[in-house]
Amino acid sequence: MTPSTAITGIVHLTERTPQISGADMVASLVPPPQFAQASFESYRADAAFPSQQEAKATLMTFAGLGAAQERGGLFRRAKKTPDPKPGVYLDGGFGVGKTHLLAAIYHAMPVRRKYFGSFIEYTALVGALGYKNTVDLFRGSDLLCIDEFELDDPGDTMVMTRLLGELVASGTRLAATSNTPPNALGEGRFAAQDFLREIHAMAASFETIRIDGTDYRHRALDGHADVLTEAEYAEKIADAATSGAVSDDAFADLVAHLATVHPSRYIRLIEGLSLVGMRDVAPLNDQSAALRFVAFIDRVYDAQLPIRATGASLDLVFPEEMLAGGYRKKYLRAISRLIASTLD
Q1: C-alpha dihedral sign at 163, 164, 170, 176
Q2: A GO term (biological process) for this protein (predicted)?
């Protein structure tokens, strides 16, 4: 049973073709709603992984909140460095709080011109405005936060490398989180030498900070996404539609539609929604489609939208051969977010 399209409040994402101007892109360069209030105080470091507290202390110093009281290992050496590096690069597995800490830096730094966006958003801005105009826009800015820095697209990586090099020269400070193919760069960790090769012009600008830990979402999850019957799905979609806009799409149609929308516009695709519905979920068999779906789920999760679905469990949409490949880290992060988003 499919929820009636006549019900007020139900929309189809496959009918949306969002447009976004360069000015809109710039205006959206702030932390997503989930991290609108993120702070160092609200970051709960796991005592089982000392690197989390160490990273927090180091980043507080970077943000200008005073020197850390206790440091060890890497951080003692960093204290002796007379000239701090202009950028910090947060490396770690998914769900250890990298984006929370990145947003905390953004909120804590008392500067006028600061920006926060994903790697995809910045590269899309270059595409929309042109390289020179983007440099002129950001030149002289105080802080640039880059979430999910991508190393799997050499072209985009080198464009960002060049851009960041010019901005550092103008006095901009940088903070970034890593999102690297683990089979290429090491399972669950960031490999500094690969970073040096990929963005060699910028390597000297970053202090790489390792954050260990387990995915915090797993602490309250049973390991599987909720799957609804068609009747349950129709009821939940209809109920949710009485208090706000909700989407209802066949999974295959939605995945196909994502190929027609640039990932930088996915946030506009879900604008105004209170819930995302997907019918007849099935495993994906195309890697490009899978990566687009990952980018879509990132935006859904950032917006803290619940997901309701029928068919296969959403934590099983990425086949084993994909999970064994170079994008394993991305798929596992998406699975974690899918599970969290389907639970009431």
Answers
A1: positive
A2: cell division
- Reference 295, options 339, 329, 273, 263; nearest CA is 263
**What are residue 58's phi and psi, to 5 degrees?**
-65, -40
Residue 319 CA to chain centroid, in angstroms? 22
For each of the domains in the chain, give its residue range(s) and CATH number, in order of start: 10-19+218-342 (3.40.50), 47-213 (3.40.50.300)
Instruction: Evaluate whether 26 touches 117 at the Cβ level (below 8 Å).
Output: no
Task: Evaluate if residue 187 carries a pLDDT over 80.
Answer: no
Residue 314 has pLDDT above 80, yes or no: yes
DSSP string, 117-150: EEHHHHHHHHHHH-HHHHHHHHTT-SEEEEEEEE
* Helix (H/G/I), strand (E/B), else coil: 273: strand
Report how far Cα 277 is from the mean position of its chain's Cα atoms: 21
CA 249 to chain centre: 24
Q: How much is the pLDDT for 20?
A: 81
Give the model's confidence band at 294: pLDDT under 50 very low, under 70 low, under 90 confident, else very high: very high
Q: What is the pLDDT of residue 119?
A: 87
In single-letter form, the type of residue at position 173 comes to R
R_g (Cα) of the chain, nearest Å: 20
Q: Which residues contact 112 (CB under 8 A, 6 or more apart)?
A: 142
Q: Nearest-5° angle of CA 40, CA 123, CA 334?
A: 60
Q: How far apart are CA 303 and CA 193, in angstroms?
A: 34
Looking at per-residue pLDDT, the higher value among 201 and 280 belongs to 280
